[in-house]
Specification:
Blueprint: H1 4-41, E1 46-50, H2 54-66, E2 78-80, H3 95-103, E3 109-114, H4 120-131, E4 135-140, E5 156-159, H5 165-188
Parallel strand pairs: 1-2, 1-3, 3-4, 4-5
Helix pairs in contact: 1-5, 2-5, 3-4
Length: 192
């Protein structure tokens, strides 16, 4: 079986979405880098969360900022929250929301990642961030799901213009790596 046409079509589709989304993603990505940089320079921290498979993307962003790269530089305070602690029987809270309540301090930043339709756990995390006076940044696909009602006008939304989850994951990964590079540039004055 020749898989080349399928592979080439997938790569081409992703490249097309990348090229068409740069203009839409660039400004909020730059704004997010500036807001996160300002918080880090004021001794605040970045809490990162994602539901299900997006927890891996949360770990990627936190790991990038902690300095798990080849470059020698001080670690930046970032923590991936573990969404696996959610209790399905707990209708009042979620594991991530509890972590935000326990760890978040005023002027920290909560960075939420949702490659699929955001669920109630992410919405509860945002509500906990509000109660603790954290800034909120959301990296997501075009659908907002349960998080739509809890977003405010001053929240930063980085929207990947797709509803195809695999494309959203691929572009979210690129956005996270770009965001990490921008933060390093702003904080340390060098590029990778």
């Amino acid at each position: 079986m020749d898989d080349y046409p399928q592979i080439a079509a997938h790569f081409q589709n992703t490249l097309d979405v990348i090229m068409s989304s740069v203009d839409e993603i660039a400004e909020p990505l730059s704004l997010a880098a500036s807001v996160i940089t300002a918080a880090l320079l004021e001794d605040r921290k970045l809490l990162v969360c994602g539901e299900g498979p997006d927890a891996a993307l949360a770990r990627l962003l936190a790991g990038n900022l902690l300095g798990y790269t080849a470059d020698e530089r001080p670690a930046l305070p970032a923590m991936a929250l573990d969404g696996g602690l959610d209790d399905p029987g707990d209708t009042a809270n979620s594991g991530v929301a509890r972590q935000v309540s326990a760890l978040g301090q005023p002027a920290d930043i909560l960075f939420c990642i949702a490659s699929g339709v955001p669920g109630t756990g992410l919405a509860r995390a945002v509500q906990s961030a509000r109660q603790r006076q954290l800034g909120v940044i959301l990296l997501s696909g075009a659908e907002l799901g349960e998080v739509r009602p809890v977003l405010l006008g001053d929240d930063i939304r980085i929207t990947v213009p797709s509803v195809e989850r695999d494309v959203v994951v691929e572009l979210s990964t690129m956005a996270i790596n770009t965001l990490s590079e921008l933060i390093e540039l702003h904080v340390f004055g060098f590029e990778r």
